[in-house]
Design brief:
6-stranded antiparallel sheet; mainly beta; globular
Length: about 180
């Protein structure tokens, strides 16, 4: 497994496994504490694992947490997703930077999203399972959602939106979220 820094988002990384494939399929390590530690992250900081299943065209996000934020490891374990990270850390050298990825069950690449960054994705396949490993217990009172179609962000979602939560559908613009946070 190797770690690659994401140029567009300071402190974000892609963790790329080295799958062993044969006639049975493949095997790969999807988390390695030593590799995580090698880029300055505490592998023991992650306290909760979650999994979402989405149908083709489902859009989830853009989400982040208020307060201390939430760092996460995101991996598409089955299918394919179009994944988005937006840097909303005012002191970051990549503030308002955006990065787009295709994560898939074929590659099992894991994306590290630093605390203070918004995250969202859209399922590209009929079924897409997405795994999350977060660094603090979820508290719904700290949930922040930003409009997926905010023109300021101009995210090139690849498919028409088939479905999304009411919270995501009614999300405010980035400007409104930043105003509410006093920025």
């Amino acid at each position: 497994m190797k770690a690659t820094e994401v140029r567009e988002i300071a402190g974000a990384y892609l963790f790329e496994p080295a799958p062993y494939a044969d006639e049975r399929g493949f095997f790969c390590r999807t988390f390695d504490a030593d590799v995580v530690r090698s880029v300055g992250l505490d592998p023991h900081a992650f306290v909760q694992d979650s999994l979402s299943r989405s149908a083709r065209g489902v859009l989830r996000g853009l989400h982040l947490r208020s307060g201390a934020g939430e760092a996460k490891l995101v991996r598409c374990s089955y299918g394919r997703i179009f994944d988005v990270v937006v840097d909303l850390r005012p002191d970051s050298p990549t503030y308002l930077g955006r990065a787009f990825f295709e994560l898939s069950g074929e590659t099992q690449v894991t994306l590290y999203v630093p605390a203070g960054c918004a995250h969202g994705f859209q399922a590209l396949t009929e079924t897409a399972d997405t795994s999350y490993r977060i660094d603090r217990p979820h508290d719904p009172a700290e949930d922040v959602t930003i409009a997926f179609d905010d023109p300021e962000l101009a995210i090139p979602w690849p498919l028409p939106v088939a479905s999304m939560s009411q919270r995501d559908r009614e999300a405010p613009s980035l400007a409104e979220v930043l105003k509410r946070q006093g920025r």
